[in-house]
């Protein structure tokens, strides 16, 4: 006789109701892989649109900096690079530590875990912002010590000091974005980002052109835009009721404890993100040592803008893959997690081919949107095909990073980045550019070597993953304890029943109840 009620009630309203965003088993006449691809892309598409909106904001800021003159443009560009290296990369990386916990807790139908994790992440980022703010306050002195021009250093200092409130805002925005994404809530964030982006242009106009705040006005405009975004997101969370099952708006003393799991994930996540971000800044510094530093630095700036635009799409795919893998592991469905990983990396490979085709197609025209300088045009046209080849590796390896984040293995990702970019890529880049006398293309061939190594290692790691072990780890991470024998028996019986139900095409309620039983057995002692 089949059980029709779970042994332990789920925290969701109905025992037969799947968590929002987790799609049921595919019909027998539809390929499971295609259904999984649809699930991933339904998450990734709104995030890609959000990325494009954020990219448009940066273009507007650069436009207003350019209108202020060469000095504000140089100072602002230097300040943005400094802020990215020392601040935003750190906050972004630390916030990613909460991603596997939230994704797996949501899949395990333990939504009450999401609120405390969100609060801890915000506190962690606020604490990290204090030394970052102190570093930003001394930026001018550091730039002068490195030999930068005094006027440019002063302009950069003005920009970064006006950006200090943004550290506070980012400490909330990064965790909230992950909190929503782990629940497959992506469209509301896109709507809020669109509304904030629409206000970015008039805010810049008022602060820069009307109030004449100069370079500080551009920085303050970004702060105002992020403040608007945070307000809209909090309004959505409150009005939609999404906080009710998670306790996101109920700050309690619980968030002041149990830091170990978050820190164990946040620190290696931060290292992995910083290693990749810092690589590009090192590339810019190396350009200054080449035969024609002015042209190569300018060309590198154009190419970094180009790769940033392309990266929006694989990074969005990576976030979708991470969410789906985390959800499935949290629900103790290792076979579905394996399928998600395979489909996600395959989608990344398709994106890589499209990115390569784009880079080759626009190689002679792309740089003309930024400059008319013949030397810069020639350098950019020569290197863009190499950039496209880099994306052949970058897109699938970025999707693989999503698999590692969703399965709570950021340390593995950080190690892969370290050995690929600094153990292989950096020596190859320096050797080809300087000793091999390939100059600027040599640097990008080093990037190609790094991406090739990275995707190869990532594929090996994903291919050799023990998904049943990862599912057991997910139960422990979300507060449950797993009896290995019980877990295996429940999963095997549940999978056999799922197959029978898919073949019969009915008894959906019984199947969902058995899923609830499966999760209840694994988390009974928590």
Automatic annotation (TrEMBL):
NCBIfam families per record: matE
A Pfam family of this chain: MatE
GO MF annotation: an example: xenobiotic transmembrane transporter activity
PANTHER family: MULTIDRUG RESISTANCE PROTEIN
Membrane-spanning residues: 77-97, 117-137, 185-207, 213-238, 259-280, 300-321, 341-362, 374-395, 416-436, 442-462
GO annotation, cellular component aspect: membrane
Membrane topology, from the record: Multi-pass membrane protein
Keyword Transmembrane assigned: yes
Family listed: Belongs to the multi antimicrobial extrusion (MATE) (TC 2.A.66.1) family.
Organism, as annotated: Ensete ventricosum (Abyssinian banana)
Disordered, as annotated region: 1-27
Listed name of the protein: Protein DETOXIFICATION
């Amino acid at each position: 006789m089949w059980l029709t009620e779970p042994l332990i009630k789920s925290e969701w309203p109905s025992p037969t109701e799947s968590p929002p965003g987790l799609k049921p088993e595919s019909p027998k006449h539809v390929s499971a892989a295609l259904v999984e691809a649809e699930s991933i892309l339904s998450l990734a598409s709104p995030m890609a649109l959000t990325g494009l909106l954020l990219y448009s904001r940066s273009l507007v800021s650069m436009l207003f900096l350019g209108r202020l003159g060469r000095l504000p443009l140089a100072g602002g560009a230097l300040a943005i690079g400094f802020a990215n290296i020392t601040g935003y990369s750190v906050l972004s990386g630390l916030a990613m530590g909460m991603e596997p916990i939230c994704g797996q807790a949501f899949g395990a139908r333990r939504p009450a875990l999401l609120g405390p994790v969100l609060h801890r992440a915000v506190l962690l980022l606020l604490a990290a912002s204090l030394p970052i703010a102190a570093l930003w306050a001394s930026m001018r002195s550091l730039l002068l010590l490195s030999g930068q021009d005094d006027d440019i250093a002063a302009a950069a200092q003005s920009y970064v000091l006006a950006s200090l409130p943004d550290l506070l805002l980012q400490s909330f925005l990064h965790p909230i974005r992950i909190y929503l994404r782990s629940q497959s809530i992506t469209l509301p964030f896109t709507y809020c980002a669109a509304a904030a982006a629409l206000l970015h242009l008039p805010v810049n106009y008022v602060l820069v052109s009307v109030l004449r705040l100069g370079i500080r006005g551009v920085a303050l405009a970004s702060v105002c835009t992020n403040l608007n975004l945070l307000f809209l997101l909090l309004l959505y969370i409150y009005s939609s009721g999404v906080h009710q099952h998670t306790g996101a708006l109920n700050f309690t003393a619980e968030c002041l404890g149990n830091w170990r799991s978050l820190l164990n994930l946040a620190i290696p996540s931060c290292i992995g993100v910083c290693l990749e971000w810092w690589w590009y800044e090192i590339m810019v510094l190396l350009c200054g040592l080449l035969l024609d530093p002015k042209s190569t630095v300018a060309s590198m700036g154009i190419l970094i803008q180009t790769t940033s635009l392309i990266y929006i799409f694989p990074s969005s795919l990576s976030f979708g893959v991470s969410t789906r893998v985390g959800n499935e592991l949290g629900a103790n469905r290792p076979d579905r997690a394996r399928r998600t990983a395979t489909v996600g990396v395959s989608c990344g490979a398709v994106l890589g081919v499209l990115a390569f085709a784009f880079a080759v197609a626009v190689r002679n025209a792309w740089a003309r949107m930024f400059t008319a300088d013949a030397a810069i045009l020639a350098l950019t046209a020569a290197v863009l095909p190499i950039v496209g080849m880099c994306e052949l590796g970058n897109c699938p390896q970025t999707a693989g990073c999503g698999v590692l984040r969703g399965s709570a293995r950021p340390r593995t990702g950080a190690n892969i980045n370290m050995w690929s970019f600094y153990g292989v890529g950096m020596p190859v880049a320096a050797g080809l550019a300087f000793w091999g006398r390939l100059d600027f293309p040599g640097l990008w061939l080093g990037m190609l070597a790094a991406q090739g190594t990275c995707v190869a290692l990532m594929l090996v790691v994903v291919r050799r993953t023990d998904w049943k072990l990862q599912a057991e780890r997910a139960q422990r991470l979300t507060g449950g304890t797993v009896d290995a024998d019980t877990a295996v028996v429940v999963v095997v019986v549940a999978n056999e029943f799922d197959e029978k139900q898919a073949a019969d095409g009915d008894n959906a309620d019984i199947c969902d109840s058995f899923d609830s039983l499966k999760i209840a057995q694994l988390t009974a002692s928590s």
